[in-house]
Please model this.
Amino acid sequence: MRRRAIANTVGFDDASFPRSHQGTVKIVGAVFADRRFDGVLVSEVVKDGSDAADVLAATITRSRFHEHIQLVLLQGVAMAGFNVVDAFALSERIERPVLIVARRQPDMDAIRRALENRVAGGREKWRLIEGLGPMEPCAGVYVQRVGISAEQAHAVMERLAIHGRIPEPLRVAHLIAGALGSGASRGRP
Model:
């Protein structure tokens, strides 16, 4: 039996902020029905905090889009600096798969050193990242998956990466978050 294609997604990215910033950082979710942009979700997480999974889950479940969203896409595993998303907890709370996307293979040793040496709760945050396993190549980018097969992830990436290698929900979330953070959208995710 063939699985039904994942059509409705939300992609999240965080707004830019100055290095000296303390407090909360805006996060943006771009909601898509297949390739059609359907809406925006906005919330805030604490810079270098540990509330990302809770905030994302609440943002999704309290939204009018909740029942339609089939997959959450994240632009990397951390938001607002080193606020690492517990992707397993997020997936469990919203009862949906999570796909973490990175344009390039991250330097995991550098991330581990930074977390363990400079970030409060860094060892636990590193355990969350390590628990996801290594990033896998997928349709020209790298991914980590929770609750979604490699085949399904590849199909989603192929279908939603319209203007480059990054899927539209993440590309649009990046543009909106950039505008919230600095007044104008910029660059590529």
